[in-house]
Amino acid sequence: MHYFSIPMRKVNPKTSADPTPPPTLEDYSAEPIVAMTASPQPPRPAHPERYLHYHRHYELLYITKGVRELWVEGREYRAEAGDLIVFRPGEAHGEYAGTRTISFFVYRFRPEDLSNSHLEFPSTRNRCPVLNLPQKAEFVALFNRICTEFSQQEPDSQMMLGAYLVEFIVKLRRAVQGSATKKPESNMRDQIRLAASLLQENVSAGMALEKLARRTFMSTSHFAHSFKACVGESPRRYQIHERIEQAKVLLLETAKPATEIAQQLGYTSPYFFYRQFRKKTGYTTAQFRERFNPA
């Protein structure tokens, strides 16, 4: 399924002898849709559990640029462009900066808005607060239409906003359940192939294990285990293998010095690159170039 929940780290609520205040109620139901562009973000507080709030309505944040970090139920999460943050009614949470500024849509509706339209909010595994949605342009276009309709306040705007809510819930349900018809084994193989492709495409920059897991909708531990089971080696060893293979190509097809190749492939130390190359191939870079490309 197209969902994930990647906790950044466990937060210990007992960081101080001071009692933790109860979350405050904030009601934004009069602002059903808001578009924020390059909005400054508050920094992470030292004790996020002291600054929690909740709503009686659903509050959804669709990130279009930047990073938002959030605190929900004792854990911190990270949301990037293309992610939808879901805060359910009564769910205490806090939000703060992942980047200095952020652009996003805020979409709010009340539980009775759903029941009046005979809708049910899609169920997501473990009530995860962050969803990665496919078809980004489609959701951005829908949120822009909702913003326009709300700002115009035509006589039939409430009817149109109700219709847009139905459209959004249906699209969200399809996004969450879109891959449910695939066999789990086939779906997992597709995800691992995607991860391997990402490692190949980002051989110089590298990709953190957490980010790979995020892109393939798996937990970090499940992704690492599945990757090794399918590919035969860990993601880190696979990335090293791809870097060495790319180094071989550059050594044979270009006249670049080994130090430049090391830098191009993302090594911060050329000496580490030399040691790794020799360990994996049995040759120094100079020996490899002379042995396999004597011309």
Rg calc: 24 Å
Give the full name of the CATH homologous superfamily of the largest domain: Regulatory protein AraC
Question: What share of the residues does DSSP label as strand, in percent?
Answer: 15-25%
Adjacency order of strands in the biggest sheet: 3-10-5-8-11
Tally the helices. Answer: 10
Please report the total strand number as a whole number. Answer: 11
Shape: elongated
Topology at a glance:
Layout: E1 7-10, E2 24-25, E3 33-40, E4 53-54, E5 58-65, E6 68-72, E7 75-79, E8 83-87, E9 93-97, E10 101-109, H1 111-116, E11 130-132, H2 136-152, H3 157-177, H4 184-201, H5 209-215, H6 220-231, H7 235-253, H8 258-264, H9 270-281, H10 285-292
Parallel strand pairs: 2-4
Antiparallel strand pairs: 1-7, 3-10, 5-8, 5-10, 6-7, 6-9, 8-11
Helix pairs in contact: 2-3, 4-6, 5-6
Structural description of this entry:
The chain has 295 residues and is α+β, with helices and mostly antiparallel strands. Helix content is 43%, strand content 19%. It has helices at 111-116, 136-152, 157-177, 184-201, 209-215, 220-231, 235-253, 258-264, 270-281, 285-292, and strands at residues 7-10, 24-25, 33-40, 53-54, 58-65, 68-72, 75-79, 83-87, 93-97, 101-109, 130-132. The strands form 3 sheets. A 5-stranded antiparallel beta sheet has the order 3-10-5-8-11. Strands 1-7-6-9 form a 4-stranded antiparallel beta sheet, with no helix packed on it. A hairpin with a 2-residue loop joins strand 6 and strand 7 (75-79).
